[in-house]
Amino acid sequence: MEFDFDINNLFGNEITVLNKQLNPYRATPACFREYKSQLCTVIDQMGVASAKAQGLHGPITSVSRMSSSEHILYVMKDPCAHKGKGAVVGFLKVGVKKLFVYDGEGTQHEIEPLCALDFYVHESRQRNGCGRRIFDHMLRTENVKPQHIAIDRPSHKFLSFLMKHYHLRNSLPQRNNFVIFDGFLKSSKGRK
Ligand code: ACO
Questions:
Q1: C-alpha atoms less than 13 angstroms from C-alpha of 149 in its C-beta half-sphere
Q2: Is the pLDDT of residue 188 over 70?
Q3: Of 79, 121, 114, 117, nearest to 99 (Cα)?
Q4: Which of 10, 27, 70, 136 is the most exposed place for a label (fewest CB within 10 A)?
């Protein structure tokens, strides 16, 4: 995704981690308002693009949703694209949620795992390993194993992604929209 402004002013690293503060990278007092407004534009447009790609009625990632939650955004950029202005490649949003999940015997557990909530790589960059790099970065940063993450309504592309890169294939049937895999309830970080 390309914008009129310079993406490199907003995101310092190839993959930048953002929380509800949504602070632009080069946030000096003189340009803070301008860069913050640009950052908000990027987040809202990424959310819209992701929703469109998933066939959702409306975005599940936006500035207003970020501001009122403890969700974490991992945003990947290509710093050299768009004649040096940079381009946004994709993002992953994660957050802790309280869930009631069922194990293989049908016993209910109340847990607070890290959940993958929204994941999107721009159409022009898909199937090039960008999703894997974002997801791996999140796993390292959060210090969590792929099988310990609950996935909110995964698309078939995301399920295929998880099977290919992390060999997650056997899901445990749930009564909510989350998908969890074998091993989820073993030593899950969020298990209560
Ligand atoms: N059809 C089927 N599988 C796909 C497709 C596709 N069009 N695109 C990616 N994948 C899966 C495949 O397993 C693929 O491996 P393959 O090419 O050998 O078949 C693998 O992902 C590729 O891995 P990466 O290149 O690392 O992943 P990518 O950069 O494509 O990002 C993502 C994966 C985020 C799912 C991307 O395809 C995307 O944005 N899809 C559209 C939006 C979407 O479905 N997001 C998930 C919604 S659910 C949620 O967010 C909780």
A1: 26
A2: no
A3: 114
A4: 70
Distance 131 CA to ligand 1 centre (A): 7
Residue nearest to atom 11 of ligand 1 (CA): 161
Measured from the CA of 117, which atom of ligand 1 is nearest? Answer: 51
State the virtual CA torsion across 176, 180, 186, 190 in degrees, nearest 10: -60
For 149-180, give one letter per residue: b (16+ CB within 10 A) or e. Answer: bbbbebeeebeebbeeebebeebbeeeeebbb
- Two structure tokens written together for 55: 């066939």
Domain 7-181 is found in CATH 3.40.630.30: yes
With beta carbons less than 8 A apart as the criterion, state whether 130 and 90 touch: yes
- H helices of 10-98, where? 32-54, 63-67
| Mutational pocket test of ligand 1: of 71, 73, 127, 164, the residue with most ligand atoms within 8 Å of the beta carbon | 127
The model's pLDDT over 99-147, given as tens digits with 9 standing for 90+, comes to: 999 998 999 999 999 999 999 999 999 999 999 999 999 999 999 999 9
Which H or E run contains 5?
A: none
Cα–Cα distance for residue pair 150/190, rounded to 1 Å: 10
